[in-house]
Amino acid sequence: MTSPHVAIVGGGITGLMLAIGLHARGVSCTIYERASGISETGAGIGLSPNAEVAMQLIDPAVHAAFKSAITPNGEDYFQWVDGYATDKLMYRLHLGKDGFQGGRRSEILQSWAKLLPNSGNIIQFGKELVGLDDKEGRPVTLSFSDGTFATADIVVGCDGVWSRARSLVFGDAYRATYSHQYCFRNVVPTETARAAIGDHRASTRFMYNGHGAHSITYPVAKGAMLNILVVISDPGPWAGSGKSNVENGLVSADSDTANRQTTGKGSRSDAEHAFRDWQACVKGVVSLLPEEPDRWAIFDMLENPVPSYTKGRVVLAGDAAHASGPHLGAGAGFGIEDALLLATLLADVPTGVADSKSLHSALQAYSDVRYERTQWLVQASRDAVDLFQWRDEAKGKDAEAFSREITWRFLKIWNYDMEGMLTEARKLALN
Ligand SMILES: Cc1cc2nc3c(=O)[nH]c(=O)nc-3n(C[C@H](O)[C@H](O)[C@H](O)COP(=O)(O)OP(=O)(O)OC[C@H]3O[C@@H](n4cnc5c(N)ncnc54)[C@H](O)[C@@H]3O)c2cc1C
After folding, report:
1. Which of 123, 319, 373, 416 to mutate to test the pocket of ligand 1 (most atoms within 8 A of CB)?
2. What confidence score (pLDDT) does residue 355 get?
3. Where is the sequence biased in composition, kind Polar residues (predicted)?
4. For the segment 217-252, what is each residue's pLDDT rounded down to a tens digit?
5. pLDDT given at position 124
6. Mean pLDDT, to the nearest integer, of 319-341?
7. Rounded to the nearest 5 degrees, what angle is found at the Cα of 148, between the Cα atoms of 146 and 150?
8. Is the beta carbon of 33 within 6 A of some atom in ligand 1?
9. 7 lines ligand 1 (CB under 6 A)
10. 356-388 and 399-414 helices cross at what angle (nearest 10)?
11. 3-state DSSP call for residue 216?
12. SS3 state at 309
C-alpha cells in the first residue's frame, strides 16, 4: 500500500507547512512555486499561540525553527493605546508566556525551508499553475505556464489570495474584493524608532487606535529593528496604480486583471494626512515610513466565499481558501492549522487513486472541519478593524466595551482545541 502523491501549488507559509508536515509523515509531495525561490518580504509577521501549537504538531522542528527566527516582545502583553485623543493605554491583554512573537517573514520562511530535504526536487521553482485536469480514474494533471505538466493524486492550492487553483476549480465568481483598507509597512532600526516614539513604545507590541486608521508596531530582528504597520480606511474603490503585483512577482501576468493591482506607490503624506489630528506618538510612528512607501491594498474573501474547500481531488488551504484582513494577526496561523489537518488526514489515506473513497472522505472532512472557523475569521477581521478604527466612536473609546469585544475574539483564535480538531476530522473521514 502506498500513500497518495500530493502536489502543493504555492510555497508560501501554508504550502511550506504542508510540505514539511507531509514529509514528516512519510507522504510524498512536491511544491510547485511560481517564483524563482523562497521569496517573502522582509516585513514583520506575528504568529499567535494557536499557530505555535499547530507548528509543534506538524513537526517540533518547525516550532524550533520559528523560535530561533523570532524576536521576543519586551512584555508579554498586547497593548492598545488611544492614539487619537489621549495617548493613554486603553487595554492590555496577556499573551501567555512568550506568546505572539514576531519576526521578519523572510527570516522565518528561510528557517522553515531548511527543514525540507535538498534531494528529490521537493520544491520546484518557476512553476506557475495555469491548468488543472481532474478526471476520474486518472491522476490529476497540472499544467504550468512554461508548457510543462505534472501529475498527482491530490492537488492542494496554497496559492494565496488570487489563487489560480481556486478559479480553475470553482470559477472566477469566487474572487477576493477590496476591504476598503490599505496599509503601509516599514522596518526601521530600533535606535531610530526610539528617537521618534520613545524607548518603551519601541520595545514591545503596541496598537494605536482612533478615527479611520490604526497602527501596529513590534520588535523584529532580535530587537535590532521595529516593524511598523499603518492601516488606513479608504471608502472608495481601490485606486492602486503604478507597480502591479505582476511586477512584484505576487501574481501571475494572466491572473484576473481588474483585481491584481494590489500594490501601488504611495506617499508618506497620505499617512500624515490620515493621522493629522492624532497624538504625537502616532505621528512619530508615521514619520518612520519612507517618503514613498508601497501602498498595499487589503483584499479578502468576505463577499465571495467559496462554498467548500474541496472539489474532486483539489483542495484549497490558507489564503487561497479564506483570505482575511490582517487585523487579528491570524491569517498565517490559520493556514498553519489547515496544513496540520491536511497533513494528518492525508497521511491516514492508505492508497492513491485506487482508493478514492477514503481520499474523498479525507478531503471532505478537512473542508467540513475547517470551514466554520476560517470563515468566521474573515468576518471577525472586518469587525475588529471597525473597532480599532472607531467606526462606532463610543465603543472604540470605551475601554470596557473595547476590552470585552477584543478579548473574546483573540481568545477564540488563540485557545483552539487543535487535538480536538484532529480527532473530529479523523472520525469524519472514516464515515
Ligand atoms: C499587512 C499584512 C500583515 C499580516 N500580518 C499577519 C500576522 O501578523 N500574523 C498572521 O498570522 N497573518 C498575518 N497576515 C496574513 C498572512 O500574511 C497570510 O495569511 C499568509 O501569508 C498566507 O499564506 P499562504 O501561504 O496561504 O499564501 P501566500 O503567502 O500568498 O503564498 C502563496 C504562494 O503561492 C504562489 N503562487 C501564487 N499563484 C501561483 C500559481 N498560479 N502557481 C504557483 N505558485 C503560485 C505565490 O508566489 C506564493 O509563494 C498579514 C497579512 C498582511 C497583508
Report:
1. 319
2. 57
3. 254-266
4. 999 999 999 999 999 999 988 876 444 333 333 333
5. 96
6. 97
7. 135
8. yes
9. no
10. 160
11. strand
12. coil
In percent, how much of the chain has pLDDT > 70?
Answer: 93
Which cell is 118 given?
535538498
**pLDDT per position as a tens digit, 251-260:** 333 334 444 5
Give φ, ψ of 11 to 5 degrees: -110, 45
Residue 53 in grid coordinates = 501549537
Three-state SS at 327: coil
Active site residue 201: no
Q: Is 319 in the pocket of ligand 1 (CB under 6 A)?
A: yes
The shares of helix, strand and coil residues in the chain, as percent rounded to the nearest 5, are 40, 25, 35
Mean of the per-residue pLDDT values for the chain? 91
134: region left, alpha or beta (phi > 0 left; psi from -120 to 50 alpha): beta
Q: Which helix (H) or strand (E) holds 263?
A: strand 263-265
The three-state secondary structure class of 83 is coil
Integer CA distances (angstroms), 297 to 12, 182, 340, 341, 366, in order: 19, 4, 29, 30, 30
CA distance 370 to 399: 33
Residue 234 C-alpha cell reads as 479608504
- Closest CA to ligand 1's atom 31: 12
Distance of CA 430 to the CA centre of its chain: 30
CATH number of 6-430: 3.50.50.60
List strands edge to edge, sheet with 154-157. 123-125, 29-33, 6-9, 154-157, 314-316, 310-311
The answer to whether the CB of 11 is under 6 A from ligand 1 is: yes
Cα separation of 54 and 14, whole Å? Answer: 12
pLDDT over threshold 70, residue 77:
yes
Residue from 17, 33, 414 whose mutation best tests the ligand 1 pocket (most atoms within 8 A of CB): 33
